[in-house]
Every structure is written in C-alpha cells, then in structure tokens.
Design a protein that fits this description.
heterodimer, A: alpha+beta, Aldehyde Oxidoreductase, domain 4, Aldehyde Oxidoreductase, domain 3, 3 domains, 8-stranded mixed sheet, 5-stranded mixed sheet, B: alpha+beta, 5-stranded antiparallel sheet, 4-stranded antiparallel sheet, 11 helices, globular
Chain lengths: ~775, ~280
C-alpha cells in the first residue's frame, strides 16, 4: 500500500536552501584561523618512472617554508579495499599528477612557489596506457609487489605478476551448455576512457594534532568515519583520538567517498609539530591528483531463442582503475554482481577485472559502475532486438526480471526487494511516445530519433553498514536532529526531517536539522554513499522518533494522570486518544514535567535510533554466490534527439526517467535528483573524457579543455515519473534513489543516436566526430 | 593562485606605460602588458607564464575608446568583448567575439588581449583582417598608425615595449554583408575546430579563418578561388583547401580528418549565406 502522510510524500522545502541560495553557507575551504599553515603538493610529471632523486634545496630557499615531506616519511601502502597506494609516492611514480612531496608554508603562494622549485629526477619506464594493453601478455608490470599487499576487505583477488588488481567471477547455471543451445547469439565490445567528477567544490581538508594527541580533521568528505578508520588502521592513532568535522559538501558524485587528502594533511601537520595545516586542491589537482571516474572496456555476449528469450550471458569487464585500485576494486565487484542488468538470465558467466594502468586512479562515481555497465548492456539489447527483429521495448519486457527470479549472485528476488521493471519501461514508453515515430525526418538533414534503456542497481554496502540518529529537544518543544549523514546537495537532511516529523506527527519546521557532522558526538554512520542514506539513516530516524515518543508519553502519562497506552502524539503535543483536546505540549514534558509545587519528574527526552543492514554476505570467490544488497531499485530512461545528417551534430530534446523508488518521500526533491542525474549522465556520455597522450600524460586536466555540457545545452525537456512499489524494509516504503538518474542516460543517448545515424555507436563520449568516424568506417 | 610576486603598474597614459616598460626591462625584469587579465591569471597560476612586472592598460583613456569618429570606427584595445557585443559598432566583430569563451569571461577579456593571445585561436583578429583595419601602436618615441596587414605575420609582431592602443576600421566596412560561423567539438562554448568569418566587398567575398591551422589567417589565394562563381561550389572548396597556408590541425579537440570535414561544411554554409546575399 502506498503511504500518504502529513509530510511524507509532500514536496517540503529543503532545509539547506536559504543558506545556499544566499551564499552564506561555509565550506571547508572558507575557514581560516590564525596560525593556519598551508600544504601544497609536488606532483609527478611522469606517468610511470623510478624516482632517482628529489632535490629540495631551492624549495627551502623560499621564505615561509616550514617543512618538506617526502615519501619516505610514510613508506607504507594504504587503500580502502586493497592497500596498494603510498600516500606520497616513494621509489616509483605510477601516474601523471601523483603526489611526491608536500610543502608546508605560511601562505599558499609560498608553498606553491616552493613546490615548483623541487627538482625530481626520474628514470622513465614504459607506460601502460590502456586496459587492453594492461591485460596483454607483455605489459609492463605496474605493481611489482602486488602479492604482498594487505587486503582490507575479503572480496578482492589480485593476481601477482600481472596488472590485475582484482578478478571477480560470477558462475551461475551452466553457461557452456546453455550457450551451445542458443539459436541466436550476439557479441559486442564497448569502451570509454576515465573522466572526472567535476564537483563545484574542489577537495579540501585541514588537519591539526593537538598537544594531547587528538587529531582534529575538517574535511569535505562523504566518509568521516572512514577517515578515522584510515588514520587508525594505517597511522596507529587511537580511533577515539581522531575527530572529524564535516560541514556541508559542495557536490561529491562519489568522488569524496574515498580518503586521499587527509593522510597527506596529517603527515604535513606532523612535520610542523601538529600545527593546523590546510590542503586545498586547485582544479587541476582535483581532476587528476585526486581519484577520478573509471574507464571500461567490456565485451558482452548474449544468447537467446529465436523468439528472444535470453538464456545465457557472458560478460568480460576490464575496468581501468588507473594506478591504484581504491574503490575501483569495489566497482569491479559491483559490475559483476549486477552484470546482467534487470533481466532474467538463467546462465551467467562473468569475469570482471580491476586493471592497473598508468592513468590517474579511479574511485566511486555516482552509480558505482552501473552507468558504465548499463551502457554496454542496453546497447547490446538494442542490437539484439534489431537482429531478432523485435521491438527493443518488447525484447526488454520479455526478459525483464521479476520476483521469483534470481540475481547473478543467486539472491532470490521478492516482491519486497525489487521494483517493477516492466511498469517502469511501460511508463517511460508512454512519456517518450515510443510508438509514434521512433525516427522522423524533420527536414532533409534533420532526423529525430528516440532511444530507451532499462536499468537496475543494488547498493553494495558493507554487510554491517549502519547509521544512528539522536533527537534532542529545545525548551520550546522543538527538536534537534543529529545524524552523521552528509549533506552534499542530495537533500538527505530534509528527507530525514520529514521522516521524523511524520512519525511525531509534527510540523517539519519545528525540527532543527544539524547540517554539520562531528564524529565525536554524532552516532556512527557507515558512509554517505551507495544511495543508502534514506534507507539506513531513515530507519534509524524512525526508531529515534519512536524512542522519543515513548519517553514523551511516559512523562505525559504522569502529567495527564493516565496510562501511556491512552496517549498519542501530534502537533507537538501529547494528547489523550479518546479526547484529543486533553493534551500537554511537548515543551511541558520534553525537559521533564514540573508539578505546580515545583517537584519534577521524567527528565529530558533524548530519542535514539540505530539501524544496521541485515542478512548480507560477501560473495563466494569462485561463483559469486551471496546476498550482496538489501534491495534493487529499477528504472527506465529514454531520450529523444535531433541529429543532423550533414554535420553529425545533435541536440537533446526530451529526456525521460521513470524510477521505481518505492514510496517517494519528497516528490520535487526526487524529481530534481533525477534531472540532476540525467544531466550528469548525459554530460559524461556526450562529451566528458580524459585524453591521454602516448606517454599517458593527461592532456586536459582543466576546464579549459575538459568539456562538460553547459547550462542551455541540457535536454529541452525533462520528464520524470515514479512507480511506487513500496519497499517493505524502507522507511515508509522508500528505496534509495540518489544515484539512479545517471544510470541509463548514456545508454539511452547511445541508442537514440545509433538509430538516428544508422551505425552502432559503442564508445564514449558521443561527440559528433565519433559519429562521423563510425559512419565513415562503416561506409555509410 | 599565482605563486610568484610581481610589481603592478597602472599607468594613465600610453607614454607612461611605454616608459614604465622600458624602465623595468632595462633593469633586467620580465615585463608584461595586460588588460583583461584572464590569460595572465590562468597561465601564471599553472606556472606557464612568469613576470616580474605587469602593466595594466585599462586606465589609459585611449585604450578604452569605442566610438564612431567621422568615417572611422575606433576600438580601444582594452574594450571588453561584451562591450563590443553590446555596442555593436562593427557587427561582424560583435558576432565573432560573442562566441569567444563564456559570458562571464567576456566581461573581462579585452579585444587587445584576445588578438595578442598566447593561444592559437585569436578569433578577434578575423574581422580586422577582413576589414583592412589599421592599428594605433604606442612605441618608445611616439604613437603611430599602421595597417594591421603590415604587422601581422601569423601574430601581431611588435618590438618589445610597444603595444596596440586602438584598432581603426573604415566605417564603410562595418555595413558590408558578412557571416561568421564557429564550430566546436561539442559544446557551444569552447575553442573552435573551425571559425570562418567572411565579408563581402563589391562582388568579392573575403575569408578569414581560425582553428584550422596553427594561427588565424586571411588568404587572398583562397578568396580568389572561393569567389570564382564560374566553378561549382564543391570544386571551389576542394581547390581552396589545397591553398591552406599550413597543415590542418590535429589535436585533442578534433582529428585533421574531421576538421577538414567540418571546414568544408562551414565553407559551404558561408558561401551559401554570402552568395544568397546578392
């Protein structure tokens, strides 16, 4: 049943809107304190080389330089999944832009000048410039010591002596037999290079080490508790001695989920006796020194009956992780466990490889491998439909996954853990008017054409991922909501306030949401990633509200001289169910109740709620078997383009997203999430890509040369709708929706342009030159 | 952030500017003139440009002139691109510079800065090349007015310490039929794969190009071929292509092959527009 509440399901104004709209919000980079020192990095000018020597003589001559930190200050490896990355390169550099030294100076410009004067002598090594090369037999080896790296989580399988950072396998059913029996088969290969997150706020942190040993970190991170974990795990600091503060974050898109700057700033602070040191990346550093977005080369094979019933699928993913595995090792796993897309395929064989190259290293990007995966899957579905002479929507409907089926890792899908794929595509079809003219000639040169995609994603959180919420009250009966979910523009704090207001049946404006996170007093939260916050923190918020209600009722029962069972809360009052006029306001019970004679009972109300994932398991090494995510959200996207035959340019007209997000808690915010997602996905698909020269040097690490779509170039119309199949486990039936608007965008665009140009466009970005080149090569 | 220290001067006359330059250069310093500052800031902050002394030309009244003076249209070198668009004294220039960078940057970028840019595009030059513009130069001893064509050798060549004060265009040129088309890799904003500006004087069409070769240029040879109405359009384009002053650029924005394809299309569009104007 769909839930209609007093605030859940309403488009409440975002709680952070006024501060942001007036430009008064302070980000990490905006904070200055007296005595603050600045760190600047010396970065590698080679993509693969031995470091022969580092001469800091001239750098020391710059006034204001307080310390110069080199790799030997911490010659150990760190990493979230496989510890393979030294925070500062030592002995060897593995990508262009890799940190080699830190200058700590009184001012930023002094540090920057000194950094430019550090002389590094390299002995260049042959570079690995693509995943194909990395996978080949004669590739230079990037990590000689791969066999000795520490595994931080269990599901990572490096192959020593190769450039394979991890190899994840899915073996479901009997692929070989099923494949041999298929009447129709297709095989196709897709590829694209690494790219950037391009959040408006560049990454920034400050670290100080207090005389009492406390390490105080300010950071724009999605993972404050992971910073604690990293400083504890690799730097031997007591976890309780690390305090992380996070104000609001100015866009992240997955790029601020991993930990890179904080260990550097820690080493810098340590080198100057613990003084506060700020490390703020400039745009160029944010693009290539910091981790970026994966590249992929993938081959997809599908086999089916003549009627289009897909029986077997084989998937080979070569993921360009760049120089270090970081979260790309997790993405390698995520792409494998959802490899089929939202289709029921009984026999599955998948090899997903996390490949080292000499490119900047990659981490999570909104969608965690799924926008990339979906591009390959959905382009193949369109081609297969053409081969089978079936309408692409019909082929998708025929094979759409449903409750009763199993996922590639053999998780059983139920009505509660998966959305309705068929409904999504049917609705998307209506919105894009699929049945009316899939392609139309507007004039002699202009073709209008449509493309569609279907997608899914589960959130592969840690199996013990969790969140907590604490509610405290003000003397006037309003309440404070404390939770370590990070506000990075996605609206999470607003939705949490809605959940609490709904449970307490009170006005959302009477809830003060603490926007900042402080790990010392906020309850632990796994991270703000993986579209998991509404689910994890939302469940915790519900329980915190229930806890507060229990306490309010207990005190109110004394004040109103009745039993707790007779009471209900609503409108910031506790009232008697049978006589709602008979009530006591929150303010008279939230700090305890005071009798007329001055005696007091009850004490203040503090509502506490926590939630932890249940029944998740790691994957089996040989087959992938395991329960990897709490639910799958499914959705469909479509786009209409106007393509110019003569010059191969195009315009995006209508872009459609239909998502089964369970109950939609805040419709306007959810709609905006989808629009923003489509923008991000279409920008990536149509124009974004790093360009490497033959020495693996990034040619466009700046916004002069790295092109994104700009305001005015987005689709002329966004159409967003939701199918609301409630998720039994979600707060008020909600599922995670944060990443989903991105996932099918590239695929839908690729499909519409391929149809318009009558060629198969299998690479990104989909720039006019690519279409021209493909047409030329295919002789059309 | 710019890492190095530098001295900043803001002279109020051209004479003072030249003298300041001379003084600093004589002291062995690296000196730069600048006006909008977009290029100085962006290159200096990435260590691709260094200077001990910068001289800001924006307070020299002559450099900020934008007026119709009798039969001449006078454009100060420190006039911003957006001012050129807004006041539109020379529509071909306005239309051409409108496509340089983005609106916010065009508030700062000046026409003098654009034509003297370190980048290879300098699209602001094209209208001046087509309109036989003259430039007023501030030199050590005096100011003088010379034809742009005499100074332009792949870039405006001036002896150190001299700078462009104004561009002077005969008013008659500002009313001629024109077209200007810019093609990019993808976005509306970005460096040109090809920019073609054209101006029709009497029966002849003049052409100037940016983004095609290593520098902006106007080619009389190509103009002659392209204006030859006796030949079919396709042949004219093919022949004109063989007269390019250098190889077609091949870079991360476009391959040479694609650039040639775009160039041909853009030439065809330009011819259509200009010949349709008869």
């Amino acid at each position: 049943m769909k839930y209609y509440g007093t605030t859940v399901g309403k488009s409440e104004q975002r709680v952070d809107v006024v501060g942001k709209a007036t430009g008064k919000v302070k980000y990490v980079g905006d904070y200055h304190v007296p005595g603050l020192l600045h760190a600047k990095l010396v970065t590698s000018t080679e993509a693969h080389a031995w470091i022969k020597s580092i001469d800091t003589t001239k750098a020391w001559e710059v006034p204001g330089v307080r310390a110069i930190v080199l790799g030997d200050a911490f010659p150990y490896h760190i990493g979230p999944i496989l510890a393979d990355r030294p925070p500062l390169a030592f002995k060897k550099v593995r990508y262009y832009g890799e940190p080699i030294a830190i200058i700590v100076a009184d001012s930023e410009h002094q540090g920057k000048l000194a950094a430019s004067l550090v002389e590094v002598e390299y002995e260049p090594l042959p570079v690995v410039n693509s995943v194909k090369q990395a996978f080949g037999p004669d590739a230079p080896i990037i990590h000689e010591d791969l066999g000795n790296y520490t595994k931080i989580i269990s599901n990572v399988y490096p192959v020593p002596g190769t450039n394979i950072g991890s190899h994840i396998k899915i073996r479901k059913g009997d692929f070989a037999t099923a494949w041999a029996a298929c009447e129709e088969t297709i095989s196709a290969t897709y590829s694209f290079n690494l790219s950037d997150h391009a959040a408006m706020e560049t990454r920034s942190t400050s670290v100080e080490i207090n005389p009492d040993g406390k390490v105080v970190v300010h950071s724009c991170t999605q993972s404050p508790y992971t910073i604690k974990k990293v400083l504890n795990q690799f730097f031997n600091i007591e976890v309780g001695d690390v305090v992380v503060h996070v104000p609001v974050v100015g866009g992240a898109f997955g790029g601020k989920g991993t930990v890179q700057l904080e260990p550097l700033a820690y080493l810098a602070s340590k080198a100057v006796g613990g003084k506060m040191v700020k490390l703020q990346y400039e745009r160029e550093e944010d693009m290539i020194t910091a981790p970026c977005h994966i590249g992929v080369d993938m081959t997809i094979k599908l086999g089916a009956t003549k009627e289009g019933e897909i029986l077997a699928g084989q998937y080979t993913f070569l993921i360009d992780a760049g120089a270090y595995t970081d979260q790309a090792a997790g993405i390698t796993r995520a792409m494998a466990l959802d490899c089929t897309g939202p289709y029921h395929i009984p026999h599955v064989w998948c090899d997903s490889y996390c490949m080292y190259t000499n490119h900047p290293f990659a981490t999570s990007f909104r969608g965690y491998g799924h926008p990339e995966l979906t591009f390959g899957i959905e382009r193949t579905m369109d081609k297969f439909a053409k081969q089978l002479k079936i309408d692409p929507v019909v082929l998708r409907l025929k094979n759409a996954i449903k409750p009763g089926h199993t996922s590639p890792t053999q998780s059983i899908l139920t009505a509660h853990n998966i959305g309705d794929a068929a409904k999504c595509i049917e609705r998307a079809k209506e919105l894009i008017e699929w049945d009316q003219n899939k392609e139309t000639l507007v004039d002699e040169n202009i073709v209008r054409s449509k493309g569609i995609s279907l997608f899914w994603k589960t959130s592969t959180t840690a199996t013990n991922a969790q969140a907590g919420v604490v509610l405290t009250f003000e003397a006037d009966g309003t309440l404070n909501l404390n939770c370590a979910a990070i506000e990075l523009g996605q609206g999470t704090k607003t939705v949490l306030a809605q959940i609490v207001a709904e449970k307490l049946q009170m006005n959302i404006n009477d809830i003060h949401v603490n926007m900042e996170v402080n790990t010392q007093y906020d309850p632990h939260q796994w991270r703000t990633v993986a579209s998991s916050t509404t689910f994890l923190a939302g469940r915790a918020a519900l329980l915190a509200a229930e806890d507060a209600i229990r306490q309010l009722k207990k005190t109110a029962a004394i004040a109103l001289q009745c039993s707790e069972e007779d009471l209900e809360v609503g409108g910031s009052r506790v009232y008697i169910k049978s006589n709602p006029q008979h009530a006591i306001p929150f303010k008279d019970v939230s700090y305890g109740y005071k009798f007329p004679n001055g005696h007091a009972v009850g004490g203040q109300v503090v509502g506490v709620g926590t939630y932890i994932q249940k029944h998740l398991t790691p994957m089996d090494k040989e087959t992938g078997f395991g329960d990897v995510g709490p639910w799958w959200s499914v959705g469909a996207q479509a786009i209409e383009v106007e393509w110019n035959k003569r010059d191969c340019t195009y315009k995006m007209l209508r872009a459609v997203t239909v998502l089964d997000g369970g109950t939609i808690l805040n419709p306007r915010a959810a709609e905006q999430q989808m629009r923003g997602g489509m923008f991000l996905g279409l920008s990536w698909a149509s124009t974004e890509s790093f360009v490497f020269d033959e020495s693996a040097i990034t040619q466009n690490p700046n916004f002069r040369n790295y092109q994104m779509i700009r305001f005015g170039e987005q689709p002329t119309e966004y159409l967003v709708d939701f199918v609301e199949t409630p998720a039994a486990d979600g707060p008020y039936g909600a599922r995670g929706i944060g990443e989903y608007g991105v996932i099918g965008a590239a695929a839908a665009l690729g499909n519409s342009l391929s149809r318009a140009a009558d060629v198969e466009l299998d690479h990104l970005p989909l720039i006019p030159e690519l279409i021209w080149q493909t047409k030329k090569e295919s002789g059309r | 952030m710019i890492p190095f220290n530098f001295d900043y001067y803001k002279p109020s006359t051209a004479y003072e500017a030249v003298a300041t330059y001379q003084m600093a250069a004589d002291a062995g310093k690296e000196v730069l003139y600048y006006s909008g500052g977009t290029e100085f800031i962006t290159f200096a902050r990435t260590n691709q440009l260094k200077a001990d002394v910068v001289i800001d030309l924006k307070s020299i009244p002559e450099c900020t002139v934008l007026e119709q003076n009798g039969s001449e249209c006078v454009i100060g070198s420190a006039v911003s691109l957006n001012e050129l668009v807004t006041f539109n004294l020379f529509p071909l220039l306005g239309e051409t510079v409108k496509r340089i960078a983005d609106h916010t940057s065009r508030n700062k970028i000046t026409i003098g800065g654009n034509v003297n840019s370190r980048l290879i595009y300098r699209e602001g030059l094209l209208p001046f090349l087509l309109a036989d513009a003259k430039v007023k130069i501030a030199r050590k001893e005096k100011e003088e007015i010379v034809p742009l064509a005499d100074l332009y050798k792949q870039e405006i060549t001036l002896e150190p310490g001299s700078f462009v004060v104004q561009f002077i265009v005969d008013h008659a040129y500002t009313t001629l039929p024109f077209s200007t088309l810019k093609k990019t890799r993808m976005s509306q904003v970005g460096y040109p794969i090809v920019t073609v500006s054209a101006l029709k004087k009497d029966q002849d069409i003049r052409f100037a190009f940016s983004g095609v070769c290593q520098y902006p240029f106007r080619s009389f040879e190509m103009e002659k071929i392209l204006s030859d109405g006796t030949m079919p359009e396709q042949d004219r384009i093919e022949q004109a292509l063989s007269k390019l002053p250098g190889p077609i650029l091949h870079d991360s924005y476009a391959s040479a092959g694609y650039r040639e394809f775009v160039f041909k299309n853009t030439l065809a569009d330009t011819l259509q527009m200009m010949e349709g104007n008869q």
